[in-house]
Amino acid sequence: MSHKLKVGELKEIYLTDEEIWRIFTIVLSSKSVKSSTYKYALIKSLIENLYQVNDQFELTYDQLAYSFTKIYWNLIVHHNLDKQNRGKNARVVTIIKETQTNYAIPSEFSFDKIDASLQLNLVKKIKTTMKENVFGALYGDTRGTFYAFDHKRECLKLNPGVHSFMLNYQRLIVNLTNYHMAAMIEELNEVPSINYLLGKVESIAKRSSLRPFEKLLMSHFEASCFYCNKTLSGKKRETHVDHFIPWSFVQSDQLWNLVLSCNRCNSSKSDKLPDRSFLEFILDRNFELTHKIQDDTLMTNYKSKKMIMLYDYSIKNGFDTVWCP
């Protein structure tokens, strides 16, 4: 009954890659009891927040619950995949469906489009469910070796070795988790709902629009392309917001990884990694941002060494085609 635990201590700090892979294999396989897709969603939430940990490798429940809620909102509301549990409806499904009904939210609304206060209220409710059914369950499956957690502090602390492992094999873990989550959703839902299912599962962390970031960057910096310095006039379809490190690796939209780009550079760069010479430019840009932006949450736990680490780990994960404008 590990899912009922309120505190979980880290039982093993030093694990080899082989030992971590063995545990991951068990978690993703049929050997791990999965009455719902919760465990997959928590793994995806951890991956989305790998670069948001503090110096003690800690993540708050609010950070994880936000990602967890976004995953399920876009599956349940946006894609109508409301069977996420064997037997009765998963509690997360009930909470989200009730919110959608009570506020008459159209199904085409992705999570980032709904009102901010409504988002926070929803995340708070989902966090309660995660305390009851999620944090302890995955902790039990990983035998207390992947992370510690504390409901009172509302904090999850990753094993530093596991954090490093997940960074090193991030792309592979993402693909494995998406595949197994999609397979379970396909088993639980009716055929008409599952067209292009893997693509739906893969894209659920992505925001529908980066427009708010564009306005924010425009308000603090000159309207010019980060890569080629072309002046951006602001005309429709001319100004783009680009993920400096490709989104398909980062799996998250963070201000410190977003730059203004012209249409030509954005299209040419696509899913490639910018030449290392641009790394110094974005480190300088982010240094300015940390001093210009009033809202601390937009640069939470950002450090230049994390940006460098992100760049290096993306190469290890196969993003080794270097791009220049």
UniProtKB/TrEMBL annotation:
As one GO molecular function, the record gives:
endonuclease activity
Which superkingdom, per the lineage?
Answer: Bacteria
Pfam families named in the record? HNH_4 (PF13395)
Start and end residues of each HNH nuclease domain:
213-267
Q: Which InterPro entries match?
A: HNH_nuc
Q: Which residues form a coiled coil?
A: none
Swiss-Prot/TrEMBL keywords: Endonuclease, Hydrolase, Nuclease
Name recorded for this polypeptide: HNH endonuclease domain-containing protein
Q: Which organism is it from?
A: Halalkalibacter kiskunsagensis
